[in-house]
Design brief:
Elements (H helix, E strand, L loop, with lengths): L4 E4 L5 E3 L2 H4 L14 E4 L3 E3 L4 E10 L5 E11 L11 E4 L5 E3 L2 H4 L12 E4 L3 E3 L4 E10 L5 E11 L6
Parallel strand pairs: 1-6, 7-12
Antiparallel strand pairs: 2-4, 3-5, 5-6, 8-10, 9-11, 11-12
Length: 163
Amino acid sequence: VCKNITVQLDATGNATITPAQIDDGSSDNCTDVASLVLSLDQTSFDCNDLGSNTVRLTVTDASGNTDQCTATVTINDVTPPTAVCQNITVNLDATGNATITAADIDDGSSDGCGGAVTLAASKTSFTCADLGANTVTLTVTDASGNTDQCTATVTINDVTPPT
């Protein structure tokens, strides 16, 4: 008798299950339940297994008789990516404006599952009112919707001489 389960990947992007997690009360008419041997066709999962996976539980009694059932093992990624920021200096243009992208303050943010991450900066446009140091938050989101943040200092300089 099988049951479906949900398992979260660990920080390294791996998860392991045991037959007992899938077993939902398997029994035998002649063998003590403690004598049943339970085995699974898959016990290890990683980032490639996100979502639903079908596993087969095999139950073997003391006489060598077997039966099988299948269960769905749902693998979730709940570990946030790692946000890594870098400070930058930006010069205003001749009109007194400057623009950055989130990638400009990213310094190698990554995800344990190795997939692409999405970057978003709390502020990307600057004017003369922003001269000096500005704290900008970088939000990094992985494919599973997990997020992490870091802050960077964006120093705005005015290098245009007056007219």
